[in-house]
Amino acid sequence: MNEAEIVTNRVAAVAVDKSAAVQAFIMHHVTDSHEWTLVPLLHVKLPSFLSLHSMMVILSATVIVLVLGLACRRIPTVPSRLLLLVELFVRYIRDELAVPFLGERDGKKLTPLFCSFFAFIVFMNLIGLIPCFATPTGNLSVTAALASTTFAFMIGGAIYRNGVLGFLKGFVPPGVPWPLLILMVPIEVISMFIKSVALAIRLFANMLAGHMVIFSLLGLVVVFGVYGAPAIGMALGVYVLEVFVGVLQAYIFTLLSALFIGQSMHPQH
Fold first, then answer.
1. Per-residue CA distances from 2 to 7, 15, 113, 149 (Å)
2. C-alpha R_g of the chain
3. DSSP secondary structure of 169-210
4. Strand ranges (DSSP E) for the chain?
5. Maximum distance among all alpha carbons in the chain?
6. CB 158 within 8 A of CB 167
7. Residue spans per domain, the chain
8. What are the Cα distances from residue 70, in Å, to 63, 84, 233?
9. What share of the chain is helix, strand, coil (3-state, %, to 5)?
10. By C-alpha distance, which of 145, 42, 199 is closest to 136?
11. Extended beta strands in 28-150, E state
């Protein structure tokens, strides 16, 4: 083996080692664990009953409660800017999402649910863009819990509004010949579950993919050194895009939840 081959083999080995390190770095930041990296060299061990993503969920809920409590602690004669912003947000969710899909009566009753969905998901989506924090919506268990809440309201709301018999009749498409009902009814039942699964996977996949792209681009700098410097600008662009995607995905989840609950509660429409 000549000297050129030796150098080539060494360079290839170093590249493989760097690629493995980058892969481990990416997986460390997108998977759940019982360790919170506050700074690169400071790792805080979390209790066995508390994972990093569950801690981010609790932190997000706490911040939202504190912010809304601060805004609504009292109703002043002249509303503050924060209170006006909260009121504008609630009015938009009520008038543009809840009422159009569920009607005047049910829409106003479920407006707090949709406001909670949007605010909670937005904060969980964006908290992972802060250094040393994680994105809990990049965990399928978290998005599945959110989708299960929508599923529970789909069933509970339909039974509350139409009764058990009316809820079951919602699976029978009107005007369909009875022989086709043998096929259509199971499809309608399965579609109700598919809607909830789609909600969970859509949010989870979008948030996980965005973060993996950012860390992968930064990993190019580690693997290729100076030649990978342009990837920093690309990562910054994806980072800015992730802010938009985080808000958009929260809106889509809230919109689809209102649509699915409305379809379940008012199948005649």
1. 9, 20, 70, 66
2. 24
3. HTTS-TT--HHHHHHHHHHHHHHHHHHHHHHHHHHHHHHHHH
4. 35-39, 42-45
5. 86
6. yes
7. 3-265
8. 10, 13, 38
9. 80, 5, 15
10. 145
11. 35-39, 42-45
Q: What pLDDT, in 10s, does the model give residues 226-242?
A: 667 788 888 888 888 88
- CB-count exposure of residue 137 (10 Å: 0-12, 13-18, 19+): buried
Concatenated DSSP letters of 45-64: EPPTT--HHHHHHHHHHHHH
- Counting every residue, how long is the chain? 269
C-alpha atoms less than 13 angstroms from C-alpha of 146 in its C-beta half-sphere: 31
Residue 84 token pair = 């006006």
Predicted TM-score (pTM) of the model is 0.84
What digits encode the pLDDT tens for the residues 62-74? Answer: 998 888 877 777 6
Close Cβ partners of 229 (under 8 Å, ≥ 6 residues apart): 221
Q: pLDDT tens digits, the chain, 269 residues: what are they?
A: 555 444 344 444 444 455 555 455 555 566 777 777 776 666 778 888 788 888 889 999 999 888 887 777 766 666 777 788 888 999 999 999 999 999 899 999 999 999 999 999 999 999 988 877 888 998 889 999 999 999 999 999 999 888 888 888 888 877 777 777 788 888 888 988 999 999 999 999 998 888 788 877 777 776 777 667 788 888 888 888 889 999 999 999 999 999 999 988 887 65
Euclidean distance between CA atoms 103 and 108, whole angstroms? 8
Residue 98 to residue 115: CA distance in whole angstroms: 10
Taking the C-alpha atoms of residue 240 and residue 213, their distance in angstroms, rounded to an integer, is 12
